[in-house]
Amino acid sequence: MWFPKKVSVAIAAGVLLEWEAGYVKEATTTAGATDTPVAGVYEGPAITSGSANYATTEEIPVVVPGAPHTEFEAAVDTGSLAATDVGKSFDISATNGVTVSTSTNEPVTCVKYISATKGLF
After folding, report:
1. 64-81 per-residue burial string, b: 16 or more CB within 10 A, e: under 16
2. What's the average model confidence in pLDDT over 36-59?
3. Using one digit for the tens of pLDDT, what is the confidence trace for 9-19?
């Protein structure tokens, strides 16, 4: 699907996105909260301050899960993932990785341990 992106925000390739006031942006610690649903995974090239569409609300390609149990690979950048974490739900970190240190909104659930810094969610 194609969704309008929030103006003047950087978005890395392949990251989880959340909704904010009708626009998508990189998911952060608020992802999964009642008023901040996860939109999907960004499927375009990285958008940086030097990108032509950085200061626009241009629509960007987003892979929207067809079911609540869609899997995607994500980096763990806060804490260390363990094999015993399979089945547990976690938050998104401030830098769009998974944090195994908090579980306030819990938009992702670990379904496969890959390493201490990567898993399927």
Report:
1. eeeeeeeebebbbbbbeb
2. 94
3. 999 998 889 99
